[in-house]
Amino acid sequence: MQPIHLAWVDYAILIAYVAFVIGIGWALARYMKSSSDFLTSARSIPTWVTGLAFISANLGALELVGMAASGAKYGIATSHFYWVGAIPAMVFLAVFMMPFYYGSKARSVPEYLKMRFDERVRALNSVAFAVMTIFASGISMNALAKLLNQLLGWNYNFALWICSGVVLLYVLKGGLTSAIYTEVLQFFMIVLGFAPVVYLGMKDVGGWHAMNHALQGVAVNPAAVYLKDAGVSYAPDAWTSAWKPLLAGPAANPMGVDWFAMIFGLGFVLSFGYWCTNFLVVQRAMAAKNMTAARNTPLVAAVPKMFFPFLVIVPGMIAVALTSMPDKNYRIPPPILSQEVYAKAIDAVKTANPADSAAAVKSVGDALGKKVAADKIASLVAANAASKLSDEQIKQGLYNSIAENYYDGVILSLVKKYCPPGLLGLALTALLASFMSGMAGNVTAFNTVFTYDLYQAYFAPGKSDRHYFLTGKFITVVGIVLSIGAAYFASMYDNAMDIIQLVFGFVNAPLFATFLLGMFWKRTTGTGAFFGLFGGIGASAIFHALTIAGSNAPGAKGGYLKVVQVFPSEMAQNFWLAAFAFIVCFTLTLVISLATSSTKSDADLKGLVYSLTPKIVDKNQPVYQRPAVVGVVLLIVCIILNFIFW
Amino acid sequence: MGLDIRWPIGFMFSLIGALLVITGLVNGADARSLNLNINLWWGIVLLIFGALMLLGAMRSRKTPPPA
């Protein structure tokens, strides 16, 4: 990718943003007087702010890049990650679970687990969460530094340290409130920064119907735009309908997923596991100023979440449609290759014998080290033999003939294509903002869990609040330094990172079963929860060792013990794994709980379990503030959206 | 907590909006953005958004909510 040259106005926008986030940290510093001010915002933030921060903590930059990529690969069906995989869980969190989190006065999700079960469950959850947030933060910072390196030609180390330094400055000053406020700022940056790109792309492609028409052509022959291998063909609506291709079975949709795995695996197990138990998002709701505000936080968040597909998935669909229109002079970017590789390939084109096109194609393809479209290479060689082309023209021809797509580059390639200086600065700042606030979110969740659930619980109980306040600040610095370490680790060991993320998947998959039983069945015991969780994690690992996705070779991607079951795609394998782990954890927790006696009396569990907690009466609230009413309205709107794109 | 978030949001987007409007007026329409003067138009949108945020913050300062 050619580095982008930024104009003064682009830098001015970037600097303005950084100045404002640091300024917010400074302005908040004088309110930071106790550990709870710093780590939990002293539960004082209005609903619309916690709601937007809630959604913003989830809308990281990797999500933005990844959703456009999925929009290109799978089309409108990607919105299942929103309409099936988020909204129902967010409504459930608001209506049923928030009363326990907020009402129990727990300061973190692990602390709730301690109140409900015992220390073992808390220790397991808090250690896993602490390690996970650091790696998540590192992975995202590595991606940011790489991006700035490729895009603007910045030095990798410089980019990594300067961005982490900015985050450190404002989080250390303003704590969780700082992180939440900048997340709100980031929310508006993302929406207002990317909306014009989507608008221009949509206008260029000729509107919604023209885009769908182009995508119908692509679905019949996806190999033409290098989306799938030659010979693969789908029904015309595979990229433009959300449900019809899914209901027709895994072979009929580009995701390779069946409807049961989608609804149970993603829509229930993974989605509820993430939205209802991940402290990173739940922390935002716990910072709200009262119970009603806390319960309404996920509901406020659900409104933009529901419409995000138009901002983040549609760009991927536009990119595919543009690629299929020869006159638009655009393609989904190929994998990034260095100047040297292109130089070698240009030489190969010049020296190739146009009479022997098979040999020419092979030598050029070897020089590029990628799959190439034979016909395009052959005609490029022939054109160069007929009349000498310039190096730049040959390079452009090579760029167009690489038969592989780099989907993560989709969103940036559109920004580059449509944004003049000014708007370019806004879009890039929005992207940068979401990377940095992602790090801030992870670090503020990490320091709370570390300070309260590990340090205060096991290392230094009973100290003064001042002590924990200073510890929280110190841990913030440690968290940032560890994130930087994790970023370097991610940049050096790609494969190790894949395995780490895989293990996190194993740990998270069964988690919701523990919460569900714990919150709604008072008989669930600590022993049951602890061993149920372990059983679920073990079940995930075994499931992974025995199954594999279609084209993968047995190994790190699964099936290394024995291949018992082959799934059509990795996504299907993941969804089924989650479903399996959930069922094992649920069953084990249930059986062990019945076999062991509870150490908690009904009085201990008041406010922690559904049947022992007085129902919240919200009859005196205005209708639009009653979580149950708002939740039902949101679900209805969500169902309508599903039917519109059926 | 203390600071009303609408102040920084309002000021920041007003500033960015102003920068875009100036860029749009100086550079004019660009071929990249389909010959639309997107900087000018989008700058105006951001200015309006920023002004609304500032207005909201100003109004709630006059009538402090009951604590």
Characterization of the model:
The complex is a heterodimer of chains A (646) and B (67). Chain A is an all-alpha fold and 646 residues long. Chain A is globular, with a radius of gyration of 26 Å. Chain A starts with 7 loop residues before the first helix and ends with a helix. Chain A has a two-stranded parallel sheet. Chain A folds into three domains: 8-323 and 413-492 and 619-644, Sodium/glucose cotransporter (Up-down Bundle); 335-404, no CATH class; 496-614, no CATH class. The mean pLDDT of chain A is 88. Chain A has helices at residues 8-29, 35-40, 47-58, 61-74, 80-83, 87-103, 109-116, 119-152, 156-205, 208-220, 244-247, 259-277, 279-286, 291-307, 309-312, 314-323, 339-351, 357-368, 374-386, 391-401, 410-418, 423-459, 465-492, 494-508, 511-520, 526-546, 570-595, 627-644, and strands at residues 547-549, 565-567. Chain A contains 28 helices and two strands. With 67 residues, chain B is mainly α. Chain B has one domain (6-61). Chain B has two helices and no strands. The longest helix of chain B has 25 residues, at 38-62. Chain B is elongated and about 45 Å long. The N and C termini of chain B lie close together (12 Å). The A-B interface holds A 9, 12-13, 16-17, 20, 23-24, 27-28, 30-31, 37, 41-42, 44-45, 49, 177, 181, 184-185, 188, 192, 196, 200, 203-204, 417-423, 426 and B 1-3, 5, 8-9, 11-13, 15-16, 19-20, 22-24, 27, 30, 32-34, 36, 38-39, 42-43, 45-46, 49.
